[in-house]
Amino acid sequence: MRVVKLAAILLACVLLQAGSVPRPASPLVVPIPGGTVLDLSKYRGKAVALEFISTGCEHCQRSSVMFQKLMKEYGPRGFQPLAVAINEKSAQLVPGFLKTFGITFPVAASDLQPYYAFLQIPTTQLPQVPQIVFIDRQGVVRMEHMGEMEEVYVRQQIESMLATGPAAPPAARK
Fold first, then answer.
1. What pLDDT score was predicted for residue 164?
2. How many CA atoms does the CB half-sphere of 90 hold within 13 Å?
3. Residue range 109-126: mean pLDDT, rounded
4. Which CATH topology does 20-165 take?
5. Closest-CA residue to 133 (of 109, 157, 164)
6. Phi and psi at residue 78, in whole multiples of 5°?
7. CA atoms 37, 75, 63, 164: torsion sign
8. CA atoms lying within 13 Å on the CB side of residue 124
């Protein structure tokens, strides 16, 4: 019983240290193997699912395959999955990951700094993947989820974000 209480206290401490939701999405610009960059600001107006992954993680692989499938279904309505691989040698491993799992959405490769900065968590915390962040069309983080998600809940989140309508044109934004 003590172990369960201690685990609950530790989890509460971690959750209190994480960024609050909803909040404006932090800037994120990370390299994509092959010479381009993933710039989150370019996806404003789309409902985004951003995954922080490790290319060798089975949960991450299944999650990315699910997002690939959902992109085909929801992409025409404005849904865009993105991923950032944060494991060692990710720049070398991402191309094989894309090919093996049939991923066509942008997958960047980075060290851990963008993971910590974007999620607003201390660098002393061990990285946990997949970390899934849902960002609405206005660029607001609506939900963060650590670990694999069941497709039914992912669909609910996508539907909710798509229902908010597109972002306002640049002239109307403040």
1. 81
2. 20
3. 95
4. Glutaredoxin (3.40.30)
5. 157
6. 115, 15
7. positive
8. 3
Phi, psi (5° rounding) for residue 63? -65, -45
Mean pLDDT computed over 125-150: 96
Per domain, the residue ranges of the chain are 20-165
- Phi, psi (deg, nearest 5) at residue 167: -65, 155
CA distance 54 to 81: 16
Looking at residue 45, its pLDDT comes to: 96
Query: Strand order of the sheet with strand 131-135?
Result: 23-24, 140-146, 131-135, 47-53, 79-85, 107-109
Given a contact cutoff of 8 angstroms between Cβ atoms, the answer to whether 27 and 117 are in contact is: no
pLDDT tens figures, 45-103: 999 999 999 999 999 999 999 999 999 999 999 999 999 999 999 999 999 999 999 99
